[in-house]
Amino acid sequence: MSKGLSLWFAISSIVLLSAAAMTISTNAIIAVVLGVLSIFNMGWGFIIKARRRRN
Fold it and tell me: Which residues lie below 8 Å from residue 23, measured CB to CB, with a gap of 6+?
């Protein structure tokens, strides 16, 4: 995986987790949704990394 793409996944995961942390006190449902999205984002990054390594 290129450095730019890995940086993108790292920053987007941090932003999603930070947003989830900020919304915990106001709306738990949105916080859970953002947490799930961040987990999917990290998983998608690992999937892309594995596919690029295989090719």
Answer: 30, 31, 34
Q: How far apart are CA 30 and CA 33, in angstroms?
A: 5
Angle at 17 between CA 50 and CA 53, to 5 degrees: 10
Q: How confident is the model at residue 25 (pLDDT cuts 50, 70, 90)?
A: very high
- CB-based burial of residue 42 (10 Å sphere; 0-12 exposed, 13-18 middle, 19+ buried)? middle
The overall pTM is greater than 0.85: no
Handedness of CA 41, 47, 50, 53 (dihedral sign): negative
Cα dihedral 23, 29, 35, 36, rounded to 10, equals: -160
